[in-house]
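Appendix C reproduces, verbatim, an entry submitted by the partner laboratory led by Prof. M.T., so that reviewers can inspect both the input and the predicted structure.
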Amino acid sequence: MAAACAWSQAAQAQASRLDDSTSPRAQVNADFRNAQMLDNQTISLPFGHVEYRLATAAYVGKQARIYYVIPLAVAGLRSPMGMQVQWRSSGQFQPGMGRPGDRVLVWTGVVRAPWITESFDLQLRIDRRELQIGQGGNLRFESYFEIETLP
């Protein structure tokens, strides 16, 4: 019975992409001048702060979950297994990690304001065998957030 209730609640939750168009810098462009080799194949690339400004006005007063979504296709990368994104939050979101194609839960609660502003301190771990960067090219992607409201 409990499993049926949990399934029913999950089936009712609809995910919507949150508008982050007012964020100062949503797209991540990797600068390999700051890269450090961890071993023969793995590069650690500290990226620094990325601030997100999420429009949550339509969800004020609702119980919700917010997910950080890393796109499956990353320019300059051959395979999703070639990169891992790690982040620490400067505020209310949970720290975590994921690979391209992952959708990671970062927040659960009642939405209290029309905007949620959050900063992530990003770090990339890259398998250099999976890089496919041409002359003058770079590694770039744009993660985004999804919200699910709960009954």
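The mean pLDDT is 85. Additional entries are available on request from the coordinating office.
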